[in-house]
Amino acid sequence: MANTKAYAATSADSGLAAYAIDRRELRADDVAIEIDYCGVCHSDLHTVENDWGGSKYPVVPGHEIIGRVTAVGSGVTHYKEGDMVGVGCMVDSCRTCSACESGLEQYCLDGSTMTYGGFDRHDGSITHGGYSERIVVSERFVVRIPENLDPASAAPILCAGITTYSPLKHFNVGKGHKVGVLGMGGLGHMGVKIAKALGAEVTIFTRSEAKVAEAKKQGADHVIISTDPEQMKAAKGSFDYLLDTIPVAHDLNPYLNCLSYDGTHILVGLLTPIEPAVQAGLLVTKRRVIAGSLIGGMPETQEVLDFCAEHDITCDVEMLDIRHINEAYERMKKGDVKYRFVIDMKTLKDS
Amino acid sequence: MANTKAYAATSADSGLAAYAIDRRELRADDVAIEIDYCGVCHSDLHTVENDWGGSKYPVVPGHEIIGRVTAVGSGVTHYKEGDMVGVGCMVDSCRTCSACESGLEQYCLDGSTMTYGGFDRHDGSITHGGYSERIVVSERFVVRIPENLDPASAAPILCAGITTYSPLKHFNVGKGHKVGVLGMGGLGHMGVKIAKALGAEVTIFTRSEAKVAEAKKQGADHVIISTDPEQMKAAKGSFDYLLDTIPVAHDLNPYLNCLSYDGTHILVGLLTPIEPAVQAGLLVTKRRVIAGSLIGGMPETQEVLDFCAEHDITCDVEMLDIRHINEAYERMKKGDVKYRFVIDMKTLKDS
């Protein structure tokens, strides 16, 4: 399958352009997928521009992949030609450690293999993501797309959806709980929909009065302007959970103060130092918790798709011609997307 | 009961000296206690010297109080004259909020009344602690001292014991878990004993090779020298829990790195900013948690006393003549006590 067409960056400042990549021959447990749609995650942009260091060029981004099975390896049991399937952030892991055995492949003790920019565990080649005609993935890392989900707007469930669903489930969010969502981007708006579907009362924290209407449109029961000291003071001690999707350094202390005793502040967007410093007293005096969470394991990724199908949840997307991906990145830098770009991969054939 | 003899500080730099204080007449639910022993907690020292601000002089410290009931109010049902009882860090709370109704009086939404330096909820007077002949406390905030516990060395269970027991129980520490204990003071050495009794495999982290023998003597299964990068590297990802009793700012990141996925770092000694900053990535990429915990509620304070009696756990104490309390404070500042001073209150009568 050499010479699959893809969009790749060849250096940190080259932008994305059409590129030929190899896709491996099918191994026994492999599924070959023709890609229909691929969501555009902020991680794609960070990796293309090497913001986190360690990017390995050429980078073919994309880990919110939806497509149809075109062929399966001799040992594949769960999928057949024509099935509508998805691939998320991982394509492999050690499969034998305690995390993998618990279906928590994202916490694989040997490190999971990322969909792009990882190293294939068999031949050491660099993995390439979903801005591409095709992908070949071991069936353990393939999920089924429920029939009643619109495939294009389901794509971001594979990253933004699972990233918010996994901690909400793990930390037992449900009926009667008050959940605050910080950040109104791709993750935040999915967090609102999922927390609502889990039965929680949901408040969006936003810095700007101008976003209140949009927050309500997303289904939030309440909106708090986080820059208004009076509103923040009134919210003191009132939340069971805060789902924090903000990807840049921000002061957690005013938010921690909004948590009840035993409240949990869940970080899903931040990877850098927590600055300014957290006041330990805010944790100790109320048994509050700061937790982190990373995407979700494969069983839970299937679960969130089924959950979204059951609750009629999809992502708000803007369809994108892959030839405009560099402009899309520029718009993402300005926060100018509601809430996720999804590439229509037919446009790759035309490019 | 006016003119009860106590030891008090009258200003931040006066030290402690004999002083006369009033103890209230018995209310219906009150228990009058003649004090036999009182543990000396670092909080006493901080309050006497106004390290945290807000100290209200005269300060009569002491919240690890053991004594005998000398009289009870008309409505008291659980205690009678002659009972050996204890009083810990709290003497009252609102009793009606969700926290109080759950037996978590330490997280009372209206603020619990501290044993010393608090305001009595009925008459607004300042509460005075256990460096005193007597104390009068509502029976809800009195606990029973099991017969087979040595009363003097049980005193610190009322603060150091419950402070470590409560989070270990709350976060479900038990058989098969690997627990690291940070800090080898009053809290740390109780944490080791309690975690061992709960069935955990316990490691003490210490900065100095010189403390290894002492750590082993405390019952630790293993010791890690936290200043040795090789030992810290070898411990990467291997702990389920870290019980962090260190009361001053320290870098949490090397310790977080020692936690497995889903590991929990429990702060019980720190109230100040967490500096240097925690790397959010260490939480997110392994679903790790930083939690805080404050003493424990009244039902759990009785529980830890019964647990310690069952498992033959007491605190290692050095008995103190109250006339030497100021020298004891100086020694505590240098960490020169193994592991808790306990005042023999007979010495107050002689003073």
Keywords:
homodimer; 351 residues; alpha/beta; Quinone Oxidoreductase, Chain A, domain 1; Rossmann fold; 6-stranded parallel beta sheet; 12 helices; 17 strands
String of helices and strands of chain A: EEEHEEEHEEEHHEHEHEHEHEHEHEHEH
Q: Please tell me how large the radius of gyration of chain A is.
A: 20 Å
The residue fraction in helices of chain A comes out at 10-25%
Which CATH class of the largest domain in chain A is shown? Answer: Alpha Beta
> In the residues of chain A, how many domains can be counted?
2
Uncertain runs of chain A: none
* Beta-strand percentage range of chain A: 25-35%
Number of E-type strands of chain A: 17
Q: Structural class from helices and strands of chain A? A: alpha/beta
Distance between the termini of chain A: 19 Å
Biggest sheet statistics of chain A: 7 strands, mixed
Biggest interchain interface, per-side counts: A-B, 36 and 36 residues
Mean pLDDT score of chain A, rounded? 96
Describe the overall structure.
- 2 copies of one chain form a homodimer.
- Chain A is α/β, with parallel strands linked by helices.
- Chain A folds into 2 domains: 4-159 and 315-350, Alpha-Beta Complex (Quinone Oxidoreductase, Chain A, domain 1); 161-292, Rossmann fold (3-Layer(aba) Sandwich), CATH 3.40.50.720.
- Helices cover 25% and strands 25% of the residues of chain A.
- In chain A, the strands form 4 sheets. In chain A, strands 3, 4, 5, 8, 9, 16 and 17 form a 7-stranded mixed β-sheet that branches. In chain A, strands 12-11-10-13-14-15 form a 6-stranded parallel β-sheet. A two-stranded antiparallel sheet of chain A has the order 1-2.
- In chain A, helix 4 crosses helix 5.
- The longest helix of chain A is centred in the C-terminal third of the chain and has 13 residues, at 298-310.
- Chain A is globular and about 60 Å long.
- Chains A and B meet through strand 14, helix 9 and strand 15 of A and strand 14, helix 9 and strand 15 of B.
- Strand 15 (289-292) of chain A pairs antiparallel with strand 15 (289-292) of chain B.
- Chains A, B: This is Hydroxyacid dehydrogenase.
- Chains A, B: Belongs to the zinc-containing alcohol dehydrogenase family.
- Chains A, B: Its cofactor is Zn(2+).
- Chains A, B: Pfam families: ADH_N, ADH_zinc_N.
